[in-house]
């Protein structure tokens, strides 16, 4: 299982472990504090390492030196656009075939909550293959690899602290996963909330303090690559109060897109991880199709940052936004169906941003409205992410930290995220069968 979560919700930890309020000797608290610092530093290193590998693979695939992935794709030849992702899929498919035929690759969330041994080598290889696949153009998120590698380094770096309890180690591994996310996207608050609300599902003081410290340290280390700059460039926006009203109207659209995204991903994901040689032609074919499509829509390859960037810059036509809205989740599903592994956060964000762009352009052109396109696009992205991850406040903060607009814009994102999440919960309750009406 991939944390993302990507569309699949992470397994929550048993409350008896993370919320147990028992007295601890001072020596254990000292060990725990030292471990938290180590986890934060090593998670930052994990974020740096995966980012460096990702950039090198992108440059190798599309043969460029400077600029963004979108610049590299648009500047490469049609042959390289098609064959680059196919070659990457072939190499990674062979790697996963060799890895999975020899050992299991357990899900990170389940391993944390069940206090199982961390498979350091297996997770490290799996994380490397994820980064290479995304760097070669696969329509998957890159956030799964740094979380996994951060957990590996943190487990290795804190293994000598023998006085840590199983509950402490659960908190530390969850902090590593959240801090790894924070490091690669320069989102310390979102990294903290990912640990607390999606992995541990707790507000206890011990994990709250640990996640704040570890995520902050990881982002500081990761700033060597991110330069503490937001992932996205935010243009000037209009009043947040008016945008909040628009955000409430946008919530049903975000809910529908998020619900469809979840259904597509659930249908595509294999029930059991693919272990046979078909991984190689499957991922190669998915890469080839992505590469061919990128000739007309160069925003499609990669985790989805290109779509978000172009949405904020108002650089998409109505036709291209509509095509990306359909193709982005389908290509993501194709890589998963072929046996690929990766995050789903940014693909769902990109799908939401495309949906918001389509809606804004339709209303502005057909109805003569004057809606702020970038704000509505990111608001829709936050709403879709809230549906796919089940945590609206985290989704709003994550999207806000990606662009760092004025703080008042957080309200607009939160309105859409909470509204879409509420609609999803209402639909889920209505679809749940009533036990009293079941036929015995």
Automatic annotation (TrEMBL):
<feature type="transmembrane region" description="Helical">
    <location>
        <begin position="273"/>
        <end position="297"/>
    </location>
</feature>
<keyword id="KW-0813">Transport</keyword>
<feature type="transmembrane region" description="Helical">
    <location>
        <begin position="309"/>
        <end position="331"/>
    </location>
</feature>
<keyword id="KW-0472">Membrane</keyword>
<feature type="transmembrane region" description="Helical">
    <location>
        <begin position="239"/>
        <end position="261"/>
    </location>
</feature>
<feature type="transmembrane region" description="Helical">
    <location>
        <begin position="343"/>
        <end position="363"/>
    </location>
</feature>
<dbReference type="GO" id="GO:0034707">
    <property type="term" value="C:chloride channel complex"/>
</dbReference>
<feature type="transmembrane region" description="Helical">
    <location>
        <begin position="208"/>
        <end position="227"/>
    </location>
</feature>
<keyword id="KW-0868">Chloride</keyword>
<dbReference type="Pfam" id="PF00654">
    <property type="entry name" value="Voltage_CLC"/>
</dbReference>
<dbReference type="InterPro" id="IPR014743">
    <property type="entry name" value="Cl-channel_core"/>
</dbReference>
<keyword id="KW-1133">Transmembrane helix</keyword>
<protein>
    <submittedName>
        <fullName>Chloride channel protein</fullName>
    </submittedName>
</protein>
<feature type="transmembrane region" description="Helical">
    <location>
        <begin position="32"/>
        <end position="54"/>
    </location>
</feature>
<keyword id="KW-0869">Chloride channel</keyword>
<keyword id="KW-0812">Transmembrane</keyword>
<feature type="transmembrane region" description="Helical">
    <location>
        <begin position="171"/>
        <end position="196"/>
    </location>
</feature>
<dbReference type="InterPro" id="IPR001807">
    <property type="entry name" value="ClC"/>
</dbReference>
<feature type="transmembrane region" description="Helical">
    <location>
        <begin position="375"/>
        <end position="400"/>
    </location>
</feature>
<dbReference type="InterPro" id="IPR050368">
    <property type="entry name" value="ClC-type_chloride_channel"/>
</dbReference>
<dbReference type="GO" id="GO:0005254">
    <property type="term" value="F:chloride channel activity"/>
</dbReference>
<keyword id="KW-0406">Ion transport</keyword>
<keyword id="KW-0407">Ion channel</keyword>
């Amino acid at each position: 299982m991939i944390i993302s979560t990507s569309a699949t919700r992470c397994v929550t930890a048993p409350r008896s472990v993370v919320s147990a309020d028992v007295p601890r000797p001072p020596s254990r608290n000292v060990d725990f504090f030292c471990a938290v610092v180590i986890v934060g530093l090593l998670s930052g290193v994990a974020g740096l390492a995966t980012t460096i590998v990702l950039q090198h693979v992108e440059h190798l695939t599309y043969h460029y030196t400077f600029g963004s992935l979108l610049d590299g794709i648009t500047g490469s030849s049609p042959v390289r656009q098609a064959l680059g992702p196919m070659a990457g899929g072939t190499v990674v498919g062979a790697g996963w075939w060799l890895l999975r035929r020899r050992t299991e690759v357990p899900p990170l969330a389940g391993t944390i909550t069940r206090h199982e041994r961390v498979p350091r080598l297996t997770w490290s290889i799996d994380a490397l293959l994820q980064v290479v696949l995304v760097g070669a153009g696969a329509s998957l998120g890159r956030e799964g690899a740094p979380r996994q590698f951060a957990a590996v380094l943190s487990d290795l770096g804190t293994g000598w602290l023998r006085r840590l309890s199983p509950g402490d180690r659960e908190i530390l591994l969850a902090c590593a996963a959240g801090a790894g996310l924070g490091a690669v996207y320069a989102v310390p608050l979102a990294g903290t909330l990912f640990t607390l609300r999606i992995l541990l599902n707790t507000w206890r003081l011990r994990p709250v303090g640990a996640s704040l410290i570890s995520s902050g340290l990881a982002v500081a280390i990761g700033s060597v690559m991110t330069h503490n700059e937001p992932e996205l460039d935010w243009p000037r926006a209009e009043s947040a109060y008016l945008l909040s009203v628009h955000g409430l109207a946008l919530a049903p659209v975000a809910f529908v897109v998020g619900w469809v995204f979840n259904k597509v991903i659930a249908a595509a994901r294999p029930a059991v991880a693919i272990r046979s040689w078909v991984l190689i032609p499957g991922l190669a074919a998915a890469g080839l199709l992505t590469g061919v499509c990128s000739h007309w829509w160069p925003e499609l390859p990669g985790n989805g940052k290109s779509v978000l960037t172009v949405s904020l810059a108002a650089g998409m036509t109505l036709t291209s936004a509509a095509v990306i809205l359909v193709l982005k989740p389908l290509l993501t599903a194709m890589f998963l169906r072929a046996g690929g592994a990766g995050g789903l956060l940014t693909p769902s964000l990109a799908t939401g941003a495309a949906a918001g762009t389509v809606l804004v352009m339709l209303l502005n052109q057909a109805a003569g409205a004057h809606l702020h396109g970038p704000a509505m696009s990111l608001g829709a992205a936050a709403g879709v992410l809230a549906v796919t991850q089940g945590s609206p406040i985290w989704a709003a903060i994550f999207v806000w930290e990606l662009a760092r607009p004025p703080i008042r814009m957080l309200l607009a994102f939160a309105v859409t995220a909470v509204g879409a999440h509420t609609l999803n919960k209402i639909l889920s309750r209505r679809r749940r069968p009533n036990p009293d009406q079941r036929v015995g």
